[in-house]
C-alpha cells in the first residue's frame, strides 16, 4: 500500500471529497447524455424519472458526501481507520442503489441511501453527549446542535423523495428535492457564511488591512434561520414559499454587504470563490422567491443560480480550502483549481441563460470539466502526505495570533507564535466540533 494510504483511510474528507468530485463528473456526464437522448429515455434502470434522479444525486449524493467530509475529521474511538472506508463504501452503495433502483425493492434502496445520512448524523451529534452541559461548553454544544439540525433537515428531505418511490406519497419527489436544496442552502448560510467572513478577515489582517469585515450578529443569526425555514416552506403553496425565499435571500444579501467582497476579488482567487458563492446564495433565493410571488418566469434559472452558483460553488471553495489546509499545503488556488472555478462559472452562466437543449448540454460539459479539474487539483492534497511548514510544497513559515503554538493542520497557523502562517481555515473560529481544526 502506498505511503499516503493510512492517512487517506483515517481522515474523512480525503476519500469523501475525492469520491464526491469523481462521482459528480460521472453523474453530470450521464445527465448530459440523458438530455441528448431525451429526458424520458430509460438510460439507467432507476425508479426515479430522469429529472428526479439528477436532482437527488447532486443534492443528496454529492451534497451528503461533501457535508460529511467537512464535519467528520476523526473516526469514532475504537473503529480506527475502518470507519471512513466503510462510510465511503456505504455512500458508493447508495449511488449504485439509486442508479439501479428499478431492479431492487424500494425500501432496500431507501435503507442503503438513507443509512449514510444516519451514520453521519450520529457521528456529528456525538460531541453533544460526550460531556455534561456547562456554561463553558454551552456555545459549542449549541453550534453542534445547529449543524445536526441541518443534517436532519437534509435527511428528512431525502426521506420524502423515497416515500414517493416507495408509493407512500406519490408525486412528492420533486418537492423533497426542493426541500433538500434548501437544506444545502441552509448549510451554506450557516457554515459557509461564517467561514467566508472569517477567512476574509484573517487574510486582511495578514495583509495589514484595518477596514475589516464587520460582524453583524443579528443578520448572521437570522440569515441561516430564515434559510432553514425554506425547507418546510417548500411544502406550502407557491406564493407562501416564495415569500419565505425572498426574506431569506434579502437577509443573506445584507450579510455579505459587510464582508469586503471587493478586497477579496482583488487579492485572492480562493476568497473570490467564497464571496461569489455566497452572493449566488442570496441572489438565488431572492430570485426564486420573486419568481414564485410574481409572474416572472425565471424560476428554473434562479434555482440553478442557487444550485450551481451557491451550493456547488461554496462547497467547491470549502473543499479546496479544507483539503489544502489539512494537508499542510499553501492556501491558494493552483492552476487546476482556478480552471475548476472558471468552468463552474461558465456552467452557471450557460444554465441560467436559457432552456434550449444545446445550452443545457454545454452547461453540463463545463460542469463536468469543473469537477474533473477539482479532482485533479485536489489529488496531491487528498492522496499525498501532510506537508510540514517550511518544507517543499508546504505552507511557508509564518506567525500566528493569540495563544498557543500554531501548528494546526487547518492551515490557520494556530493561535500563537508558531509555524504555519496566517492562512486560516477559519474553522476553529466557527465551530467546536470534533476535529474542527484537525490539530494533531
UniProtKB/TrEMBL annotation:
Originating species: Rhodobacter maris
Residues that span the membrane, as ranges: 16-35, 55-74, 81-102, 108-130, 142-161, 225-248, 269-289, 301-320, 332-352, 358-383
Pfam families membership: NnrS (PF05940)
Keyword entries, A-Z: Membrane, Transmembrane, Transmembrane helix
Region (Disordered): 387-407
Superkingdom of origin organism: Bacteria
Taxonomic classification: Bacteria, Pseudomonadati, Pseudomonadota, Alphaproteobacteria, Rhodobacterales
Protein name per UniProt: Uncharacterized protein involved in response to NO
Amino acid at each position: 500500500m502506498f505511503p499516503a494510504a493510512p492517512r487517506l483511510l483515517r481522515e474523512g474528507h480525503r476519500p469523501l471529497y475525492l469520491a464526491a468530485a469523481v462521482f459528480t463528473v460521472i453523474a453530470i456526464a450521464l445527465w448530459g447524455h440523458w438530455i441528448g437522448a431525451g429526458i424520458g429515455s430509460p438510460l439507467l434502470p432507476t425508479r426515479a424519472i430522469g429529472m428526479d434522479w439528477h436532482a437527488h444525486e447532486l443534492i443528496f449524493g454529492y451534497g451528503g458526501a461533501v457535508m460529511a467530509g467537512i464535519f467528520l475529521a476523526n473516526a469514532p474511538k475504537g473503529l480506527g481507520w475502518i470507519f471512513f472506508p466503510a462510510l465511503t463504501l456505504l455512500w458508493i452503495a447508495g449511488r449504485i442503489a439509486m442508479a439501479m433502483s428499478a431492479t431492487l425493492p424500494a425500501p432496500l434502496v431507501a435503507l442503503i441511501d438513507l443509512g449514510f445520512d444516519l451514520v453521519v448524523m450520529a457521528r456529528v451529534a456525538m460531541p453533544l453527549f460526550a460531556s455534561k452541559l456547562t456554561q463553558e461548553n454551552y456555545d459549542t454544544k449549541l453550534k453542534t446542535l445547529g449543524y445536526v439540525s441541518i443534517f436532519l433537515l437534509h435527511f428528512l428531505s431525502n426521506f420524502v423523495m423515497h416515500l414517493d418511490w416507495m408509493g407512500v406519497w406519490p408525486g412528492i419527489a420533486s418537492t423533497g428535492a426542493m426541500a433538500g436544496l434548501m437544506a444545502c442552502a441552509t448549510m451554506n448560510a450557516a457554515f459557509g457564511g461564517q467561514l467566508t467572513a472569517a477567512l476574509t478577515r484573517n487574510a486582511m489582517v495578514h495583509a495589514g488591512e484595518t477596514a475589516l469585515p464587520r460582524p453583524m450578529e443579528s443578520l448572521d443569526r437570522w440569515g441561516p434561520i430564515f434559510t432553514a425555514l425554506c425547507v418546510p416552506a417548500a411544502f406550502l403553496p407557491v406564493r407562501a414559499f416564495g415569500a419565505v425565499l425572498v426574506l431569506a435571500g434579502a437577509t443573506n444579501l445584507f450579510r455579505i454587504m459587510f464582508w469586503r467582497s471587493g478586497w477579496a476579488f482583488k487579492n485572492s482567487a480562493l476568497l473570490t470563490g467564497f464571496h461569489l458563492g455566497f452572493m449566488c446564495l442570496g441572489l438565488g433565493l431572492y430570485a426564486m422567491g420573486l419568481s414564485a410571488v410574481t409572474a416572472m418566469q425565471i424560476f428554473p434559472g434562479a434555482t440553478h443560480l442557487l444550485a450551481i452558483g451557491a451550493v456547488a460553488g461554496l462547497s467547491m471553495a470549502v473543499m479546496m480550502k479544507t483539503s489544502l489546509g489539512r494537508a499542510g499545503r499553501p492556501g491558494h488556488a493552483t492552476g487546476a483549481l482556478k480552471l475548476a472555478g472558471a468552468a463552474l462559472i461558465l456552467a452557471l452562466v450557460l444554465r441560467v441563460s436559457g432552456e434550449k437543449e444545446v445550452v443545457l448540454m454545454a452547461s453540463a460539459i463545463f460542469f463536468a470539466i469543473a469537477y474533473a479539474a477539482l479532482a485533479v487539483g485536489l489529488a496531491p492534497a487528498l492522496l499525498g502526505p501532510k506537508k510540514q511548514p517550511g518544507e517543499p510544497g508546504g505552507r511557508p513559515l509564518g506567525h500566528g495570533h493569540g495563544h498557543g503554538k500554531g501548528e494546526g493542520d487547518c492551515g490557520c497557523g494556530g493561535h500563537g507564535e508558531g509555524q504555519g502562517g496566517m492562512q486560516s481555515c477559519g474553522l476553529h473560529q466557527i465551530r467546536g466540533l470534533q476535529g474542527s481544526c484537525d490539530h494533531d
